[in-house]
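Case study 2.
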Amino acid sequence: MKKVAFIIRTFQENSFHGGGEKLFYHLIKRFSQDGFAVDMYCSESDARQTQFINKIKILVEPYDHNVPETMEKFYKEAKNLVKNKDYDLIISENITPPIGITFLQGHSLANRLKKNKNPLESFLYTFRKVKKQRIKYQKKWMEQGYKRIFVVSEVLKQDIMENFRIPAEQISVVYPGVEHPAYSHPEPLCHPERSEGSFPLNAFQRGDSSAKPQNDTSITIFGLLAPGFNIKGGFIFLKALKILKEKGYEVKAKIIYPKYNKNIGVKTLVKLYNLTDTVEFLPYQKDINAFYDSINCLAVPSLEDTFNIAALEAMSRRKPCIISKNAGAREIIQHKVNGFTFKNTPELLAENMMFFIDNSSLHNSLSEAAFETAKNYSWDRTYKNFLEELERTKIL
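Prediction:
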């Protein structure tokens, strides 16, 4: 029997804080189903043992991604624990001290300084001591080298190539998946509030929801998931809604943004743009599918997004998406066939929203094409592609 070790910060079985945890949950489960003995080394977990994990070891060393020194101590302890175990494969997460291979779900901090961000914000970013320290350590760990790097999109691959000069042949792209209603079972709840800035978040399932299926089809309802309002394109979305309203379009929007009541700036902008009666802000959702079922189209105007699993989730509910070219999910979209892609400006987002509204005759074909695309991106496919790359590169 082949043995695999996973070294990650958090293993969740009953709830997910973000898309990265969901990705690892499905990889771990499918390795076990494929006959591998799977051992888990982590800082915290909501499960001390599962039916499909051989062993879960909670490490003594703390893990704080804002303090790289704690990460180095954590991975040193992990390295000591696995060194004599004869594992066929050791898998870690994100840009961390290297042990074996790594699977990245989040952009590098260096990418945050790129031109798609506000120039003043990027300038100030370089003077934040914690950020500067983390950037230095990420560069150090990348230079130390991994056995192989896996990423969730070409967008993320480009980030790693440009910012760390890693050759393309050392990086493999394996897209994440989705539990499709055509063949899926219910998944654990997802609570992303603990990792708001991490790899694209996909489900907000805590709190009561006013997201009910929409019966009135005369008004188009656009949706947005924005745990981090700026980075997920919240301001671009509001400006696009303002443009639509000025052009005489009657639309509605539902935005999942739990911190809305504490954000005076966003509240002020909604009033300034005269969108009070247009936009409904929602808390974390117990049932994210109810949210998708209550909208006609999902907007993904992210400034930075390695993938965005919410796009796949919406497509699995037959909801087309309008996706920024900054988001990795746009790589699975054929423009005006199974969704829309756009260069990330409010004007171009508004243009695609207007096209969707004006061409209701295309809604059925767009919805079915989105649905069929989502069927092709199952978690079984993610695991299969991951395993094929491991075998192709002679790692396994």
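Confidence is low (pLDDT under 50) at residues 184-216.
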